[in-house]
């Protein structure tokens, strides 16, 4: 297991939430855990899919499964289930400001009313979605 890969306890929680994969064209399906670790590696490091480490399998196979799960709504269902279980909150998955360019109005130009409304809506959503127990807390309590 490489640094950043899912632990056995994390995998035990997540594995039942992922769809089973069937092999295509007489090939056996690859391991969901290895592919998920590859997906998380790419998203965590920010590297292109083609630069994904080979220990996770063929980059194109991992990417195709990532896209298929996105189209099937697997990611949304997974996050929603983890939120319902109280193991994470959906606030941390909503917006990453490093990838969103700020508009001149966000710096105090015209449009302050819209900005305030968005900030208030985000704060209300955060209050609603903040769990009592995080994934880290749940895992440390079980050991």
For the record, the count of structural domains works out to 1
Q: Mean pLDDT score, rounded? A: 74
**Alpha carbon gap, first and last residue:** 19 Å
The helix tally amounts to 6
Helix content: 40-55%
Major sheet size, sense and barrel closure: none
Structural class: mainly alpha
Number of strands: 0
Principal-axis shape equals globular
Strand content: under 5%
Cα-based radius of gyration, to the nearest Å: 19 Å
Q: Note the run of SSEs as H and E.
A: HHHHHH
Q: Which stretches are poorly predicted, pLDDT < 50 over at least 5 residues?
A: none
Description:
This protein is globular. The longest helix has 18 residues, at 112-129. Helix 2 (32-45) crosses helix 3 (59-72). The chain has six helices and no strands. It has one domain (8-141). The chain has helices at 8-14, 32-45, 59-72, 74-84, 112-129, 135-141. The protein is 50% helix and 0% strand.
């Amino acid at each position: 297991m490489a640094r950043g890969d899912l632990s056995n306890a994390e995998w035990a929680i997540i594995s039942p939430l992922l769809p089973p994969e069937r092999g295509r064209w007489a090939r056996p399906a690859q391991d969901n855990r290895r592919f998920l670790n590859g997906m998380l590696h790419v998203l965590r490091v920010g590297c292109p899919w083609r630069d994904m480490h080979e220990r996770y399998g063929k980059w194109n196979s991992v990417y195709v499964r990532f896209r298929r799960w996105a189209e099937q709504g697997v990611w949304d269902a997974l996050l929603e289930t983890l939120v319902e279980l109280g193991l994470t909150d959906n606030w941390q998955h909503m917006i990453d400001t490093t990838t969103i360019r700020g508009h001149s109005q966000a710096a105090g130009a015209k449009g302050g009313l819209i900005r305030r409304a968005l900030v208030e809506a985000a704060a209300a959503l955060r209050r609603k979605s903040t769990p009592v127990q995080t994934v880290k807390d749940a895992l440390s309590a079980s050991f």
